[in-house]
Amino acid sequence: MKNTDHHSRPPKLLERMRAAFRSRHYSPRTEETYINWVIRYIRFHDMKHPADMAEAEVNAFLNHLAVEAKVSASTQNQALSALLFLYRHVLHREIGELNDLVRAHRPRRLPVVLSREEVRDVLQKLNGVKWLAAALMYGTGVRLMECMELRVKDIDFGGHQIIVRDGKGHKDRVTMLPVSLQAPLRDHLQKVRAIHDTDLREGFGRVVMPDALDRKFPNAAAEWIWQWVFPQERRWKDRTSGREGRYHMDESIIQRAVKEAAHRAGTSKRVTCHTLRHSFATHLLESGYDIRTIQELLGHKDLKSTMIYTHVLNRGPSGVSSPMDRL
């Protein structure tokens, strides 16, 4: 009876976990990745329910990944993030200090950085929404998912800034809005507004709200300010309720476009969306901006993460203009 109970409980747990992901609008890819880590965690401990486990079991699993499975530091961190999400948002418990955790080895690799000319060449091979998204990543330093999850209210044209909500580490931060991208972004938002107005006329036009705000403010999900800057082309449909709405554009579309653009531009470097962020930071440092200011713009918790771009500190004023405006 005991074993049967253990086998029947995890599916219910995973359903609750999926609901927690969707209420916070995590990407489908992140949802599946985290779910797979939780399944591995449960299987590692012989199908014991996570509610009956705590720091010792989390430590044991993560140490197994580092010592026996020999995973990379980023993979181990991903597994840890999945378990922290499970305990914090599904089981409503905080995991304490993992004092016995063996950290996987993190190799120090220099990031791939494009020259300004190479950035220009790659962007010239893109057009439309794909160009705008890639230009924003280079022009603001935002990560791919931070770009995809931008909402209309996060764009501050008057203040020439973009507010990144719930970025890595679940923190908000502010970065610049390049002057050269304001007109294209306004034009783009006019088109998005027209799509939203059509959705509303057809009885839809609602988006998934963060932190279940739709329960607190039932009408907010249909408001223009909460809509995605980069909505997907087709509406999703809930087969159970019949509701329809739009998620943001799938990140794989931009990933594939940037990779293909780099290939057509003839660069010999391995270019990803994150390469644009690395290039943003490097070009700011080359222009003499202070490394601590760049740390804030990138949202790095530790200055060491920013230091990988240079060994020179305090090189300039704190006022920052985007490298996008220097292309």
Weakly predicted, low-confidence segments: 1-10, 311-319
Task: Give the biggest sheet.
Answer: 3 strands, antiparallel
Over the alpha carbons, how many angstroms does the gyration radius reach?
Answer: 22 Å
State mean pLDDT (0 to 100 scale): 85
- The fold-level CATH name of the largest domain is hpI Integrase, Chain A
SSE string, helices as H and strands as E: HHHHHHHEEEHHEEHHHH
How far apart the termini lie comes to 67 Å
**Strands in their spatial order, largest beta sheet:** 1-2-3
- By CATH, the architecture of the largest domain is named Orthogonal Bundle
How many domain regions? Answer: 2
Main structural class: mainly alpha
- Per DSSP, the total helix count is 13
Strand content: under 5%
Describe what you observe in this structure.
- There is one protein chain.
- The termini are far apart.
- The protein has helices at 2-23, 28-44, 55-67, 73-90, 116-124, 128-140, 144-148, 179-201, 213-216, 251-265, 273-286, 291-298, 303-307; strands spanning 155-156, 161-164, 173-176, 236-237, 244-245.
- The strands form two sheets. A three-stranded antiparallel β-sheet has the order 1-2-3. Strands 4-5 form a two-stranded antiparallel ribbon.
- Helix 2 (28-44) packs across helix 4 (73-90) and helix 6 (128-140) packs across helix 8 (179-201).
- It has two domains: 2-90, Orthogonal Bundle (DNA polymerase, domain 1); 116-326, Orthogonal Bundle (hpI Integrase, Chain A), CATH 1.10.443.10.
- The longest helix has 23 residues, at 179-201.
- Helices cover 51% and strands 4% of the residues.
- Strand 2 (161-164) and strand 3 (173-176) form a beta hairpin.
- The protein has 327 residues and is mainly α.
